[in-house]
Design brief:
By secondary structure, the chain is an alpha+beta fold. 23% of the residues lie in helices and 30% in strands. GO terms for molecular function: cysteine-type peptidase activity.
Length: 446
């Protein structure tokens, strides 16, 4: 986004407010959250009697994942990871991750750490801590498995960097959160040896060494592509690792399974033994929170799984043990085996069927959305929502993890909702126009 676009975006709410004051028009002052029957899974599944028909078989799901990886280079099949990569490639990846947060230059950002202005020393050390100068010509890949819910960072720094002194939710260093049992390819160490630069199935970043354990390639491959596995189907659940620690998992997390006594299945839980991977077996209890294998890929399962998050807190980059807009839809899709890119701007346009809405008026946009299946993604550069269908009045309804909304008229302002909600697709955006008019792409499986 160029500087003029940024300036115009910031001015639009002010310009729109002046127009409201001059014309006397009164616009919405209420939260876009819907709390009636439309905010239930049953409302939508009962309207779709064919919604439990399987859309994709397991082999078709894998073919879809391969197609998604071809369309988007942020997605990686870790089983194809070579034994070594060039130091130049690792440097390029580190710098690309830095650039996500605008940390790729020596220019100090205007941010806050621990409630005080970020110092020049803190910023320069965080960049030095990336340890690029120490990269060898050839990097030998190491193999790790996450042992507790962990934060993947844009720089090797545990403390949050925020845009205001009082903020505790929107950490600019946060890339995403990783569930236990997530495999990572280790490509380098930080200068202070507390972090490692890793590749995951959908993101690169810095991971605290206390949050993963290293192992050999064969054992690691069993976490990359387990032959038998359990999938978390609740919005979140806790499972003890068999070593006295209760671990938080979110929807879509995969845990390898093995055969136990009397035909029962056991979970293979990853535990760190002084940095080395130790696998502890514990009984698998399958219920509505843990499923053997992926859920069937159906329209109604998109609806049911989405509503399991309803009311959950908005969690930027997976912070606050929750989901932001893109991890919300990513977790829903992954519970059925489909691996989406992590970021909103990449998700919809990577799907098998994409509708580009650029140049369309509102009526055409709504008509295009009406033709879409439940589970379709509506995305622009900063936000993504999941389509449910049309209500009795023909209004398109979506699920979304919403950070904030704007009111206009006498109660003009930005309001932080920070919650997973059902809403229309036509609530007013920051400039006071129906949100559907700012959607760039519709993305769906068919």
């Amino acid at each position: 986004m160029d500087s003029m676009t940024v300036i115009l975006k910031r001015l639009l709410p002010t310009v729109f407010l002046l127009a409201v004051l001059l014309t006397g028009t009164v616009l919405a002052e209420a939260s876009p959250e819907i709390t009636d029957a439309r905010a239930t899974a049953a409302y939508w599944t009962q309207r779709n009697p064919q919604g439990d028909a399987v859309l994709l078989t397991p082999s078709q799901v894998e073919a879809t994942n391969e197609s998604l990886r071809r369309r988007n280079d942020t997605l990686t099949d870790l089983s194809t990871m070579p034994e070594s990569v060039s130091g130049a490639e690792v440097q390029e990846r580190i710098e690309k991750v830095q650039a996500i947060g605008d940390f790729d230059t020596a220019s100090q950002p205007d941010l806050y750490k621990n409630g005080s202005a970020l110092t020049a020393y803190s910023y320069s050390f965080a960049r030095k801590n990336c340890n690029i100068a120490a990269l060898p010509e050839t990097v030998t890949v190491r193999y790790g498995v996450v042992t507790r819910r962990a934060n993947l960072r844009l720089l090797p720094e545990a403390a949050g960097w925020f845009e205001s002194a009082g903020d505790v939710h929107y950490d600019t260093l946060q890339a995403t959160a990783l569930d236990p049992a997530e495999p990572v390819a280790v490509l380098g160490d930080s200068y202070d040896k507390k972090f490692a630069f890793v590749r995951t199935r959908f993101y690169d970043g810095w991971l605290a060494k206390s949050d993963f354990a290293e192992t050999d390639r064969t054992t690691w491959d069993g976490f990359v592509h387990p032959t038998d596995f359990a999938v978390v189907t609740a919005n979140k659940t806790t499972i003890t690792n068999g070593a006295g620690e209760s671990l938080l998992f979110q929807m879509g997390a995969k845990i390898p399974l093995a055969a136990g006594a009397n035909g029962a299945k056991v979970l293979l839980m990853p535990v760190s033994d002084n940095g080395a991977l130790k696998i502890v077996k514990r009984p698998a209890a399958f219920d509505d929170t843990l499923h053997e294998g992926f859920l069937p890929c159906t329209e109604n399962n998109f609806v049911r799984q989405g509503f399991r998050f309803l009311g959950d807190e908005y969690g930027w980059g997976g912070l606050d043990d929750s989901v932001d807009c893109s991890s919300f839809v990513g977790d829903v899709y992954r519970s059925m085996g489909i691996e989406l890119p992590r970021d909103a701007d990449q998700q919809a346009k990577s799907m098998p069927k994409v509708v580009d809405l650029s140049g369309m008026g509102e009526a055409d946009r709504l008509a295009a959305l009406e033709a879409c299946m439940p589970g379709t993604l509506l995305a622009n550069n900063t936000h993504v929502m999941m389509y449910l269908g049309q209500d009795d009045d023909g209004t398109p309804i979506v699920l979304q993890s919403m950070s904030s909304w704007f009111s206009f008229g006498s109660n003009y302002g930005k309001h932080y909702l920070r919650k997973v909600i059902a809403s229309t697709a036509t609530f007013l955006n920051f400039s006071g126009v129906p949100y559907i008019n700012g959607v760039h792409y519709l993305g769906s499986l068919r």
